[in-house]
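Task card 7
Instruction: Convert sequence to structure tokens.
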Amino acid sequence: MGIKSFQGIRKIVKKQFEAPILVADYMTTKLVTFRPDQSILEVMEKFAKHHISGGPVLDDNGFLVGIISEADCMKQISESRYFNQPILEKNVENFMTKNVETIPDDISIFDAAGIFAQHNRRRLPVMRNGILVGQISRKDIVIAALKLSGHNWK
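Output:
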């Protein structure tokens, strides 16, 4: 004779796994920022001091107006050598990228990876309601992917 279960029919519960997969979960929020009127020399010094390769350029009101990178500094170094002029003379606004691609903080790291694949950028400013809230790099996306296990990929 079989054993009866008095619990009734059990509901099959599908385990929900909520891993942090949003850009907001992996972005850097403590940013080294720059001003349009800063000299390229100051920027290069900050790059070396903070071990970074670029950062956002903000106006006096804190709004994103561009992004400056080591590649932009290389242009200045090359020009200063060619024209035999000191590096100090030029400001960030002369070399920064003004048409900046940004991403919202509420997209997944998978969508961000697709954006990085489409555009040849090392970092992207992260925005929320038109305000800069952080920055995410290709390296941040790789680290995020390593933290997720195979069953999290959607």
